[in-house]
User: Fold these one by one.
Assistant:
Number 1:
Amino acid sequence: IRDSRSKVAVRSRDENIDPVGTCVGQKGQRVQTIVNELNGENMDIIEYSEDPATFIRNAMSPAEVINVIFEEEGNSCIVVVPDYQLSLAIGKKGQNARLAARLTSHKIDIKSETAYEEYLSEQSAEIEEDYLVNNEVELTEEYDAFDEAEIIADVEEIEEIEEIEEQD
């Protein structure tokens, strides 16, 4: 049980009260009582926030978070951390990331700064490629439409010539 850990979010309605400090107590006395009751299970006490980005940032502690980027679909996000804090953000056996995800109800994809920059360049390359492919399709459709218009015009001309010949 020594490796087990919990994350707890707390908040105070009174802005003059520090919710985390109040739970921890002087010299950690209050939280130590709880840890002892839970047979030594460690606790991370973080401040709750109505703002999802701030809440996720807090939940990722002790890691420093550079940015939280929400995906368009569902409750998922990318959390960017400094390269040297990637393992801290993930935690032993993925525990920090897993607990933060459960606490915030978000699927959290943790990326180092370097990995995030690579991810962005891959995304922009894909967007550029999609743009080129889509524009090529539009151009091809325009040419196809032009060819069809020519064919229709040619058929109409032939029909007119045939009508004139029939009249003679």
Note: The mean pLDDT is 82.
Number 2:
Amino acid sequence: MIPISDDNPGRRPPFITWAIVAGCVAGYVWQVSQPASTEDAAILKLAFVPAALFDLNYVSQPGAISPYLALLAGLFLHGGLLHLGGNMLYLWIFGNNVEDAMGHLRYLVFYLVCGVAAAMAQGLADPHSAIPMLGASGAISGVIASYVLIYPRARITVIIPLGILLYPMKISAFYVVGFWFLVQLLNLAGTSSGMGGTAWLAHVGGFAAGIALTPFLSKFPLFGRRQGGPWG
């Protein structure tokens, strides 16, 4: 089930969402512009490495930024074009409406806090890991959680693969996000301590942060109770 759009127009231009997308694209362009022989070392200087924060015996890459800054910088780096494209698709679909509900500044703070919470959830589970954490997935997980709290009845157009066919249909956000979260939990349960190529625990941590923060930051009522909108 792959979401491709929603029937939920916003009331204001999502400037912060656009800026985040631009920042992630710029970050990826910077990554691929690095010489192949030094790309990994360059990424290690900016990406969040749990051991750099939690393991006193870890020796950081020369020139590496503070691990606290890396918690934010890593949100704009990605592990490949597919990783970037998938994240930006989800952010493009869900981010504008959450920004509309919170306002630009609150949304920016919300996004960054969810990203940090996601990285910390993964890092605390494996504090000695020297694997750099890349991507906006954790922060976007928080955005997805916020979206379903505010607009649970919004209609999401999804693509469902049926063999060689791609079948489009519209489903309420509640079921789309519920299916997405179930996939995260199943993948988390299928990896040792949540570790692996994909930071599934970070997704769950970002989602939990989104659930916790949205009631305090949203200017719209939760659970689709907003009046005057398409799903009010």
Note: The chain has a mean pLDDT of 90.
